[in-house]
Sequence to fold (228 residues):
Amino acid sequence: MKSGFFSTLTRTLIASVAMFSIANGVLAEVAPRVKFTTTAGDFVVEVYPDKAPKTVENFLQYVKDKHYDGTIFHRVIENFMVQGGGFDASYAEKKTRPPVVHEGREALVKGGPKNVVGTLAMARTSDPQSATAQFFINVKDNAFLDPTLIPPGDPVPKFEYQGRVYENTPRTNLLNAPQLFGYTVFGKVVSGMEVVQKIKSSPTGAGGPFSSDVPKTPILINSATLVK
Fold:
């Protein structure tokens, strides 16, 4: 009896350890990390496929394709954000794949981060569905960039935006309003934030096709590498 008991206990412990290992493996897959080696120093970002799966897949594919290697931070605003991933050191825009679907609202609903200091988000044009490879890192809390969640109902009984109240609005009108999409946050800086702070403090001016906000001393991404 005693031997059987310990045998059963041993099998239970082994099974528990195996399950723990599997769980840890899943968690590790949930938050891949990418190391950026730049002329200003190195920093590491963590991304969240459980919050914004298509956005993260898109970003990691650009990393694997070495798209970011040799690009610059071409837009740096000290009290706002630093943006890069689209232009090489000669200010030539790099070719990209088709845009990735906007996942900002879905990420928030799943408990994803907002546009606060240190978070990583997709850059885009005024078209919410235009994000490709460019990204930005928030260097202050930018709540105005957060996606707006639409209350339940169709029509939506009451909706308030920028101090104005809208009543009985068709749901599709709110879901498709460009100004309500915000920007998809899909990760954050987990080490080397001091490097990002250094980048944000760079003296800026005109450069290439841009009339302002370009670092006077180019800040080059030497490599972006998946490390986890």
Q: What stands out?
A: The chain has two domains: 30-147+182-226, 153-181. Confidence is low (pLDDT under 50) at residues 20-28. The CA atoms of residues 58 and 116 lie 22 Å apart.
